[in-house]
Amino acid sequence: MKQNIIVLGAGLVGKAMALDLAEDHSITSVDYNQNALDELNKSGIDTIQADLTEAGRIGGLVSNFDLVIGSVPGFLGYRMVKEVIEAGKDIVDISFFPEDPFELDELAKSQNVTALVDCGVAPGMGNIIFGHHCKEMEVSSYECLVGGLPVNREWPYEYKAVFSPADVIEEYVRPARYVQNGKIVEKEALSDTELVDFPGIGTLESWNSDGLRTLIKTMDVPDMIEKTLRYPGCVEYLKVLRASGFFSPEEIEINGMKIRPVDVTSKLLFPLWKLKPGEEEFTVMRIRITGMENGISRHLEYYVHDKYDAATGTTSMARTTGYTCTAAANLVLEKKFTRKGICPPEYVGENTGNFEFILEYQKQRGINYQFRELENGNNT
After folding, report:
1. Which end of the chain has the least Cβ crowding within 10 Å, N or C?
2. How many other CB atoms are found less than 10 A from the CB of residue 121?
């Protein structure tokens, strides 16, 4: 049955989700950027130009819709989710906000709301896979390596931002947490770099990032880590910028004016990191899970290498992030996922039917997660 959905945010990922959901539902997209909305208007999607940072604005916007999709920058994510919950609306969100979403759990339950958060690719699809196997086996370790990169490497960064530049920079400064021997370890972002080879791609560099998020609370697994991938050498440039204060949010005074260095850095880097029209990029993710099932040691691997869709002009990161979210949105709409409160994606993966639905949903859109069983965990 066709339902009314509102998508908050019309960036690269928000646009991809709106177009995907419009195949079966009535969609309204909201953004401050009129140019982004004009692109969606051409596809027959209703739009509203609005400043989502205005206090109380979101509650009024979502009041007449069956479901809310959140696709806003991380700095706005927590307040956006809170206002949607206060409005009594279910939400599926991909905003990578720094706050703890479980702080909103009691509010969501009191409002009888399903708030599915962090529902992108990583966090998101990785959590769904992890949640599924934690129901099937006693997991002892989980490793997720993930990154989105341009096909053409351009000096010096060899990187392009396929989502909010501010959120990209946040990944470079937010302390990374992982679990080792049952204890939470915290290190600075960009630490513990390692070179890893990937078929059809070559050698990439992995580094600690704060991608485990809710898994630290929801999964009692002794070893868990998530690392981000870039081309080798990129991390060294980023460390220099960070150490020099270019990512600092603390105001400094220049010629009588107060500015935040991170704002200047974002302004300078955005043109360098912006994808050119039609520029090819890809997403790569490798998940490895080790544990015991029925007394047998198992070493599992999921691998995806998704590419820019030239036919639709949709970036791979928008596809892998957005279609995880829209798959989950359909589960909520069809009452196949009804848990109330704050729900991270690992809760979705616990149900085998829902897990298989999300894999199939993405497969139909050309995103294929390859699964294999490793021999004693020694396959490279």
Report:
1. C
2. 29
